[in-house]
């Protein structure tokens, strides 16, 4: 069995199929780890969602920013933007089934045998691995439960810094923001929600989240979606994935991509 991690798909079903053909994916023998953002921007978000769901145990999916946005739009707590391509999902006959399936996905996945951890965006430096799992579960349990609508109604970018005393929606918002929107931070770990682009184009004091010193999860090998386009040099233990690229986790030497 071979396991591949895949960066953001962004609703591009055709290129995803080309990528899976290139890596020789066998759904009966292999496994795919999707680093979130399956949907939006591309023309075939509904087809992507249906396909990945149909893979069953052959696919692991962590939630990304776009999945949370879709869930919020579906409940009327967010509006479709001019570049959103989610209408087909929202109007699909199996809409509710697909949205429920998304709500049951995790924010983090770890495989001790492969020695890899999958997230969509990042992990705060202040969290231990045990805390990362526990905090993710706080959000996951709300999303999968009867109170999920209240959480989505109170989703905000109002928490950019972790404090152990955070409670209620502010606490859940920071956890969700870290897992799905973390990109650049200052040395104290404060999230910058606007910074994106190559590391050498950022103002002094900003760094990719994985370069924050004294990380408490420095022992992990983390694979994540590089939607910020860091263009960083190789950094031990961290494997940023460009959109629609794949990394074979047993031999993580180079990513595989196809031209859309």
From TrEMBL:
Query: Annotated Gene Ontology MF terms?
Result: bis(5'-nucleosyl)-tetraphosphatase (symmetrical) activity
Enzyme Commission numbers on file:
3.6.1.41
Q: Could you tell me the keywords of this UniProt record?
A: Hydrolase
Q: What class of enzyme is it?
A: hydrolase
Q: Which InterPro entries does the entry mention?
A: ApaH, Metallo-depent_PP-like
At the top level, the lineage of the source is Bacteria
PANTHER family noted in UniProt? CYTOCHROME C5, PTHR40942
Name the chain's protein. Answer: Symmetrical bis(5'-nucleosyl)-tetraphosphatase
Lineage runs: Bacteria, Pseudomonadati, Pseudomonadota, Gammaproteobacteria, Methylococcales
């Amino acid at each position: 069995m071979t396991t591949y991690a895949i960066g953001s798909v962004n609703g591009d079903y055709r290129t995803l199929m080309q990528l899976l053909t290139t890596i020789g994916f066998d759904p009966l023998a292999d496994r795919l780890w999707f680093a979130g953002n399956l949907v939006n921007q591309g023309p075939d978000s509904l087809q992507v969602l249906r396909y990945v769901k149909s893979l069953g145990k052959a696919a692991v999916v962590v939630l990304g920013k776009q999945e949370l946005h879709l869930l919020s739009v579906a409940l009327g707590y967010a509006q479709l933007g001019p570049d959103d391509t989610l209408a087909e999902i929202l109007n699909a006959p199996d809409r509710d089934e697909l949205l429920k399936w998304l709500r049951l996905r995790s924010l983090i996945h770890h495989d001790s045998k492969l020695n890899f951890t999958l997230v969509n965006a990042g992990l705060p430096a202040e969290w231990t691995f045990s805390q990362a799992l526990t905090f993710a579960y706080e959000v996951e349990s709300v999303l999968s439960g009867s109170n999920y609508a209240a959480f989505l109604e109170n989703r905000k970018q109002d928490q950019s810094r972790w404090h152990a005393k955070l409670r209620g929606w502010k606490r859940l918002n920071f956890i969700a923001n870290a897992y799905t929107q973390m990109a650049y931070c200052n040395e104290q770990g404060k999230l910058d929600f606007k910074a994106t682009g190559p590391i050498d184009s950022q103002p002094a004091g900003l760094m990719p989240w994985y370069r924050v010193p004294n990380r408490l999860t420095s022992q992990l090998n983390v694979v994540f979606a590089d939607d910020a386009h860091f263009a960083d040099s190789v950094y031990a233990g961290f494997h940023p994935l460009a959109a629609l690229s794949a990394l074979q986790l047993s031999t993580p030497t180079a990513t595989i991509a196809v031209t859309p």
